[in-house]
């Protein structure tokens, strides 16, 4: 599996946050496309099940699974190296781990907030820093961060979720500015509503797409070396409008 | 044991226990042909103690080590993805030189350029010279290189008298044809799998002039080329033919042959002048205007099937127009053709690969004609074709036969990659049917079953058994080793 054939390069990917939702769909989609995939997630049982399922069905793609909690920051540098060595290289890393606990309109729960910051942004920084270092040296690579349209503006619903995604988007932008000159692509994915467990806490949903469709669009965007992508694309229009609503109106709204 | 560790970790999804190697060591390491590359942690020690230290680092961190020096192998022989790459170039001292008998002892990182520049003034030359002077003694020994004089001077290993060898177990041993002969016969040509050369003692070739007498002649097809080689084996020191792989039909395999001889003692009136290093150097620029280093940019537009057809055509017809003629040429300009300009650069981002089968003389003509025709039929006439003559080599990983080799350069692009792989698979069958062999320094496409068929299971078993003894933990690996043997 680790055999490198010079004229038949294998594509290799790491998915952080792979046991369900968009992450699991990404693992399936990439394995189907022939990638060697390292799937990371916290819930071992679900992850194992996913790995076995995909490996049974896959023709030449292969999934390696690693149980990992992204808040275990200390271990990330050596885990990253170990995974890349197991894969035999790396072309693509997608950080899709994220939590969104239900937060009431007048709730200020620091524990929930801390969890969102730890998983949604600190974990992302810990993983993508490693990828950035490596890709800069290798002179190639693709970093994909699944942020959210929720990060485009702070809103009443979940201030810290918005903040964590805003931080993620800005971090990815900074990586893009640092790494483009080294031949590395950094893609920011901003999904709207995707049919995953995170949707349970959303009050009102529309334009919902399936996790499979989101995964397909993400992989396509990465392949095409896009910079910032809304999924589906029509959310870009919504974002444009939301950006331009002046504060004296926006702060009187309830979404 | 090392491979088992990885497999266990994968199957059990255990927490990793291996520490991270410093990211500052991470570098992209390329095949010389640039058709592939990988990322490795590169260490560059200057002493044997430094090499030992890297072995320790590898053991502590659960990584393998792949040796590298000049990095002139066309494929992945000097790459070790995601593991340690031990760059030996800084072990480049000339340890001992005896100008009265031509014996020299050097560290493995010494390049052929360093070597010939050092010994030339005393009237000596490298017996086996590769097409570039940037190869190192360690690399030449590990791959057991050949030159344009294979049939009478053999391979690089034939001129090695002894070497010191560091095993991964930490033991430093001396090897020669009388002492530790098994390792002597296997480490030479062993493509770096058994251990590390720490010093190599060789016998150089006595020469009486810095010039060679060269004769150039063209032949209209391969049969006449080989007939010319046959008739001049006994009175030539060097024989090499460049072929036009685009020519078809009656002109299939038309070549320009260069035949060279050393000057006899007394034939050169000014040996101390011709034996000067600065008389051997390639001019820095063409006609005083164009620096040699940018020439590849002007070549680039021609580096495709359409352009190369005419480049080859012009080259052949110019040679034919000049007719048979003789001249004198400095040794370095005769041998080191790849150093005239950056040969690998005009091939573009996809790079090039070389396919060089060695075929016994009784089958060579038919096999090479079939190969050239097949390449044309598949739409991949190769861009550079070189024919050489060889004799069998006595080493364990043997690739030379009593016959000919045909080196062929193919340009790789994103679109033609798969088809070229398919073509090489067809070529493999032709070579095997002709009892041919393959040479790892040029290889990018072989598979384990092909190597087994051409080298023979017995030799492979013997080599692997020896590797188990020298390297029980499987510490030394390269991409090529994993691709072809593991």
How many angstroms separate the termini of chain B?
Answer: 13 Å
Q: Structural class, from helix and strand content of chain B?
A: alpha+beta
CA-based gyration radius of chain B:
22 Å
Number of discrete domains of chain A: 1
User: What's the CATH first level of the largest domain in chain B?
Assistant: Alpha Beta
The appropriate CATH architecture of chain A is 3-Layer(aba) Sandwich
State which percent range the strand residues of chain A make up: 15-25%
How many individual domains of chain B?
3
Strand content of chain B: 15-25%
Name the CATH superfamily assignment of chain A: NAD(P)-binding Rossmann-like Domain
Structural class of chain A: alpha/beta
Q: Look at the structure and give the mean pLDDT of chain B.
A: 93
| CATH topology description of the largest domain in chain B | Alpha-Beta Plaits
H/E element sequence of chain A: EHEHEHEHEHEHEHH
Oligomeric assembly = heterodimer
Give the strand tally of chain B: 21
Overall pLDDT of chain A, averaged? 92
Question: Would you give an account of this structure?
Answer:
The complex is a heterodimer of chains A (255) and B (486). With 255 residues, chain A is of the alpha/beta class. Chain A has a single domain (12-250), classed as NAD(P)-binding Rossmann-like Domain (Rossmann fold), CATH 3.40.50.720. Chain A contains eight helices and seven strands. The longest helix of chain A has 29 residues, at 110-138. Chain B is built from 16 helices and 21 strands. The model of chain B is unreliable at 1-15 (pLDDT under 50). With 486 residues, chain B is of the alpha+beta class. Chain B has helices at residues 2-12, 48-61, 112-119, 137-143, 150-153, 181-187, 222-232, 271-274, 295-299, 305-322, 331-335, 361-377, 417-433, 448-455, 457-470, 479-484; strands at residues 26-30, 37-43, 65-68, 84-87, 94-98, 103-106, 124-125, 160-166, 172-176, 196-203, 205-206, 211-219, 238-243, 255-262, 285-286, 290-291, 325-330, 352-355, 358-360, 384-389, 403-411. In chain B, a hairpin with a 5-residue loop joins strand 8 (160-166) and strand 9 (172-176). Chain B starts with a helix and ends with a helix. In chain B, the strands form five sheets. In chain B, strands 12, 13, 14, 17, 18, 19, 20 and 21 form an eight-stranded antiparallel sheet that branches. In chain B, strands 5-6-10-8-9 form a five-stranded antiparallel sheet, covered by helices on one side. In chain B, strands 1-2-4-3 form a four-stranded mixed sheet, covered by helices on one side. Chain B folds into three domains: 2-89 and 461-484, Uridine Diphospho-n-acetylenolpyruvylglucosamine Reductase, domain 2 (2-Layer Sandwich), CATH 3.30.43; 94-206, 2-Layer Sandwich (Uridine Diphospho-n-acetylenolpyruvylglucosamine Reductase, domain 3), CATH 3.30.465; 211-447, Alpha-Beta Plaits (2-Layer Sandwich), CATH 3.30.70. Chain B is globular, with a radius of gyration of 22 Å. Chains A and B meet through strand 3, helix 3 and helix 4 of A and helix 1, strand 1, helix 13 and helix 16 of B.
């Amino acid at each position: 599996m680790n055999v490198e054939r010079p004229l038949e390069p294998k594509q290799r990917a790491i998915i952080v946050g792979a046991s369900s939702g968009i992450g699991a769909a990404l693992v399936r989609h990439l394995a189907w496309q022939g990638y060697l995939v390292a799937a990371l997630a916290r819930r071992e049982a679900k992850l194992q099940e996913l790995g076995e399922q995909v490996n049974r069905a896959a023709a030449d793609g292969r999934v390696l699974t690693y149980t990992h909690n992204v808040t275990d920051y200390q271990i990330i540098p050596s885990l990253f190296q170990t995974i890349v060595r197991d894969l035999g290289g790396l072309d693509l890393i997608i950080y899709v781990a994220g939590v969104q606990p239900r937060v009431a309109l007048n709730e200020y729960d620091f524990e929930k907030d801390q969890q969102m910051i730890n998983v949604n942004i600190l974990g992302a920084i810990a993983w993508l820093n490693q990828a950035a270092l490596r890709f800069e040296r290798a002179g190639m690579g693709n970093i994909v961060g699944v942020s959210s349209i929720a990060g485009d503006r702070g809103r009443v619903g979940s201030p810290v979720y918005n903040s964590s995604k805003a931080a993620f988007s800005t971090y990815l932008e900074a990586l893009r500015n640092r790494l483009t000159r080294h031949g590395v692509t950094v893609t920011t994915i901003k999904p709207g509503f995707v049919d995953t467990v995170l949707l349970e806490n959303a009050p009102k949903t529309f334009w919902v797409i399936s996790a499979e469709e989101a995964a397909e669009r993400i992989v396509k965007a990465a392949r095409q070396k896009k910079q910032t992508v809304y999924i589906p694309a029509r959310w870009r229009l919504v974002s444009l409008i939301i950006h331009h609503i002046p504060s004296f109106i926006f702060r009187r709204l309830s979404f | 044991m090392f491979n088992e560790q990885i497999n266990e970790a994968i199957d059990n999804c255990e927490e990793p226990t291996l520490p991270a190697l410093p990211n500052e060591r991470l570098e992209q390491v390329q095949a010389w042909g640039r058709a592939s590359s990988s990322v490795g942690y590169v260490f560059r020690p200057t002493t044997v103690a430094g090499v030992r230290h890297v072995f320790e680092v590898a053991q502590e961190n659960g990584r393998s080590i792949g040796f590298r020096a000049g990095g002139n192998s066309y494929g992945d022989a000097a790459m070790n993805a995601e593991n340690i790459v031990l760059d030996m170039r800084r072990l480049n001292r000339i340890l001992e030189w005896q100008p009265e008998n031509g014996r020299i002892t050097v560290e493995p990182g010494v390049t052929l350029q360093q070597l010939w520049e050092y010994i030339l003034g005393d009237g000596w030359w490298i017996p086996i010279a590769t097409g570039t002077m940037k190869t190192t003694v360690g690399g030449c020994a590990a791959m057991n290189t050949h030159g344009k004089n294979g049939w009478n001077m053999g391979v690089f290993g034939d001129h090695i008298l002894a070497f010191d060898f560091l095993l991964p177990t930490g033991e430093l041993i001396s090897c020669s044809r009388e002492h530790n002969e098994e390792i002597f016969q296997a480490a030479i040509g062993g493509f770096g799998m058994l251990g590390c050369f720490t010093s190599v003692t060789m016998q150089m070739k006595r020469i009486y002039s810095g010039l060679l007498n060269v004769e150039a002649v063209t032949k209209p097809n391969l049969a006449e080329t080989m007939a010319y080689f046959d008739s001049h084996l006994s009175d030539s020191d060097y024989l090499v033919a460049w072929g036009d792989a685009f020519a078809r039909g009656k002109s299939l395999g038309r070549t320009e042959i260069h035949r060279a001889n050393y000057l006899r003692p007394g034939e050169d009136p000014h040996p101390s002048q011709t034996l000067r290093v600065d008389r051997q150097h390639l001019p820095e620029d063409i006609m005083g205007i164009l620096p040699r280093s940018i020439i590849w940019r002007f070549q680039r537009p021609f580096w495709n099937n359409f352009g190369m057809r005419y480049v080859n055509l012009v080259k052949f017809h110019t040679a034919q127009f000049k007719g048979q003629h003789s001249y004198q040429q400095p040794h370095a300009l005769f041998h080191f053709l790849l150093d005239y300009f950056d040969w690998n650069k005009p091939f573009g981002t996809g790079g090039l690969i070389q396919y060089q089968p060695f075929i016994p003389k009784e089958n060579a003509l038919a096999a090479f004609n079939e190969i050239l025709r097949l390449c044309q039929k598949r739409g991949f006439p190769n861009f550079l074709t070189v024919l050489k003559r060889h004799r069998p080599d006595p080493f364990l990983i043997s690739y030379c036969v009593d016959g000919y080799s045909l080196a062929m350069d193919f340009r790789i692009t994103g679109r033609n990659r798969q088809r070229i792989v398919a073509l090489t698979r067809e070529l493999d069958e032709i070579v095997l049917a002709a009892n041919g062999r393959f040479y790892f320094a040029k290889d990018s496409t072989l598979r384990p079953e092909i190597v087994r068929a051409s080298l023979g299971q017995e030799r492979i078993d013997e080599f692997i058994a020896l590797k188990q003894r020298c390297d029980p933990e499987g510490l030394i690996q390269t991409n090529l080793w994993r691709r072809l043997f593991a």
